[in-house]
């Protein structure tokens, strides 16, 4: 990476931190209520290393193989040793074996089938995996995520049948990208679902993963504890590799 690109990357990162702080301030939440997950899909290991050097610890990836390769690339870089890798993309059931036990948090658990695949794998390795249930807050408009009416059944399944899965909360990915306030009802819906799970099942479910580059301020106002930001840190991705 050339020096000006590194400077630009750092500048963008600092700007996101400032805007996140402002978003917390605006709704009266302490800044440390909200963790920033830097979404580095399609970005180089070098770019991840630069942001890690600036103090970022949580990184999110969408593709299992890409995440594993990047981790491997950075394994020997001392200041990257403490990185917590998050899986934010859809995990196909057949990839569960490679995913289980590898990530600090899997944000995208969205079916009983997938939970069962994770549990089978974790039973063999003896490790545990923290997960969020990804909720389809938009019904028909959206493909990934469990429908709200099926969420309780999924949560029951995880808590009763999957002792190696630790359900930490909920995640959503509204279909209205970069729409700022337009995504807000989806965030409010996720919050309300979490509250109803809490009161029905007595679970803590401390995490709400919601908000991306275009809408994280609205998500913070609606109670996000994890915001997943890619473009505003790393620049526009070319996804058609
Ligand atoms: C790519 C991605 C993000 C980051 O989106 P940006 O708009 O680039 O900030 C967040 N969450 C998920 C699930 C993603 O796939």
Provide keyphrases for this structure.
binds pyridoxal-5'-phosphate, TIM Barrel, 241 residues, PLP-binding_barrel, single chain, pyridoxal phosphate, Pyridoxal phosphate homeostasis protein, Ala_racemase_N
Could you write a compact summary of the structure shown?
Pyridoxal 5'-phosphate (PLP)-binding protein, which is involved in PLP homeostasis. The chain has 241 residues and is an alpha/beta fold.
Structure annotation, total helices: 9
Question: What would you call the shape?
Answer: globular
CATH class placement: Alpha Beta
What does the largest sheet look like?
A: 8 strands, parallel
Fourth-tier CATH superfamily name: Alanine racemase
Identify the bound ligands. Answer: pyridoxal-5'-phosphate
What share of residues are in beta strands? 15-25%
InterPro entries: Ala_racemase_N (IPR001608), PLP-binding_barrel (IPR029066), PyrdxlP_homeostasis (IPR011078)
Organism: Candidatus Desulfovibrio kirbyi
Function: Pyridoxal 5'-phosphate (PLP)-binding protein, which is involved in PLP homeostasis.
Keywords: Pyridoxal phosphate
């Amino acid at each position: 990476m050339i020096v000006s690109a590194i400077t630009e990357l750092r500048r963008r990162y600092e700007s996101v931190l400032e805007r996140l702080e402002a978003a917390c301030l605006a709704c009266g939440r302490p800044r440390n209520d909200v963790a920033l997950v830097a979404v580095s899909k399609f970005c180089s290991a070098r770019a991840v290393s630069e942001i890690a050097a600036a103090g970022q610890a949580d990184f999110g990836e969408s593709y299992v193989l890409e995440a594993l390769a990047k981790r491997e690339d950075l394994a020997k870089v001392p200041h990257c040793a403490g990185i917590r890798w998050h899986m934010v993309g859809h995990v196909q059931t057949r990839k569960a074996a490679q995913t289980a036990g590898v990530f600090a948090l899997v944000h995208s658990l969205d079916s009983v089938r997938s939970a069962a695949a994770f549990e089978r794998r974790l039973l063999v390795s003896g490790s545990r995996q923290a997960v969020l249930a990804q909720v389809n807050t938009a019904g028909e408009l959206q493909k990934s995520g469990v429908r709200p009416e099926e969420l309780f059944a999924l949560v029951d399944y995880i808590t009763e049948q999957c002792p190696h899965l630790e359900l930490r909360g909920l995640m959503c990915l509204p279909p209205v990208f970069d729409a700022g306030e337009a995504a807000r009802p989806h965030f409010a819906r996720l919050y309300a679902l979490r509250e109803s799970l809490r009161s029905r099942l007595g679970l803590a479910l401390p995490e709400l993963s919601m908000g991306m580059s275009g809408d994280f301020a609205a998500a913070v106002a609606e109670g996000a504890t994890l915001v997943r930001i890619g473009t505003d840190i790393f620049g526009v991705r070319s996804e058609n590799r």
